[in-house]
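A quick aside before the break. I want you to see a complete sequence-to-structure record at least once, exactly as it would be stored in a machine-readable document. Don't worry about memorizing anything.
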Amino acid sequence: MDTTQAIDFRVRRLSSMVGAEVDGVDVRVLTPADIARIKHLFLQHHLLVFPDQHLTDVDIQRFAEHFGPLEENKVRGVDGAVLPPVHRISNVDLQGRPSANPLLKSNYTWHTDKAYLPTPSLMTLLWGEEIPRFGGDTEFVSTEEAYDTLPAATKRRIDGLRVIQSFKHMLDTLGQHDIIRADEIPPPAVHPLVRTHPETGRKSLFVANYSSGIVGMDEAEGRQLIKELLEHATREECIFVQHWKLHDLVIWDNRSLLHRAIPNYDMGKDRRILRRCVVRGDVAQ
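That is the input. The structure line, written in tokens, reads:
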């Protein structure tokens, strides 16, 4: 491995539980040693922010593929076309005008990307193409910290339970049926409620907006447990806020975090445009 041109990273921790800023890096030009260090930092901090990146979709895809193959999509954008692997997440309509009622609403609820698939995602990348003058933040919480801080009795209660992750449940809850053809809605997937990170071995809670029930529980009981666990995970003191700057590249571990966008900006006047892609993961254990 050639490390002669490895970058001298400047790393600044962003919170006690989640996140680090990695400065002095151009993700378009990385040595194998740089990539190895980024992967190490990724597992250590769960979320990395690379400021001032000037990227094309090809650049984003090339960087993402260092972590694995990209997910394909069935969700459709404002033009009615299925989103490509690297795509736009925004509050703008087909004419490019900002909208207070954007097409994709699930982004504004706590979730982990692709949780409804048999192989939930490994990582998500977002690049800030156009940022509101004020606000437009993204919040994150650690599902590992959430599990660690549960009472022992609750850990015993949920050990071995399996959660149903359903794309249709999210559609029904948010009234989002116009973003996907009915015959393309993926079937529900069943995963461990307490999942184990395949690289670090840490346990975490696997609940969010796609979680429709618990195997073996009646619907009301299962949804109440999901609600209680999600409220525990997303306590205000546990939230890390990513305050976007133009051309930030943010990557995070979907096996360790929940996230949601925050509509804390004038959505009817300011455009918020991010480029996004998701790296495929493995079967949750």
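Two observations worth writing down. The chain is about 20% helix and 25% strand. The chain has one domain: 10-279. We'll return to this after the break.
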